[in-house]
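Hey, resending since the last one bounced:
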Amino acid sequence: MGTEQAAPSDSGRSKRGLASASEETRKQVARKGGVAPHQKRGLAAANEETRARVAKAGGEARANDREGLREAGKRGGEAVRERYGIDFYREIGEKGGGTVKERYGTGFYSEIGKRGGDIVKQERGSEYYSTIGKKGGEARTAANVNVNTVSPEEQTTMTESAGGTAATAPKEVSTA
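The structure tokens again:
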């Protein structure tokens, strides 16, 4: 628009926006308005390059809102759980794992496990593994000591809650 100073109108107020532009600028804007697509408004009326630039900027702004993304993901997961149940996640996890195994082979899991382990070692130090190994050994020893005082049903429940399966539960040792 023009670089002219906004002049007071007859009513004593300053002209703003297009009203403060020169006569020539107002005519140019009016001409462009006469040939603009009237059915499209806003971003839809913009050219493809402008729409792409605006969409990219919006996507980047959204991606920077980590808390908003986390909250949206949580709400989505809760909605899926309500609609399909918790077993749905197990089913899709098994399908996904099977697809990855078919595509990349079983060595893929070894490789990503090793990479993850190396990252943890870098971040926490090699003594971290000694510490968690010791804790795991102590927990297993405590479970084996208590095995004679716990019923087989309780053993299964304890093992499953620790992330194992009933097949890995300590067996009762006969002393006879």
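Residues 165-176 have pLDDT under 50 and may be disordered.

Sorry for the duplicate.
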